[in-house]
Give the backbone structure.
Amino acid sequence: MHDTPASGVQMIPGWRLIISDTGRFWAVRNRAFPRGALRAGAEPTVDADTFEELQAAVARQEQIVHDVVAEVPS
């Protein structure tokens, strides 16, 4: 596995991208999720066959966080 190079590769803000030796895409969140998000099913590491699928997987995880934070009373 190797981290994606900074030039010529799209990035996902807040996530570190890795491409395996077999070409599988992985993303690891740079900051820990809140505990409530983890309990709600958020995964800090996701993988996919394509970059587009990886973006969708990351978006699903971030949506879980958004939903959990929105539920917390102020």
DSSP finds two helices and four strands in the chain. The first strand starts at residue 2 and ends at 3. The mean pLDDT is 88. Residues 51-71 form the longest helix (21 residues).
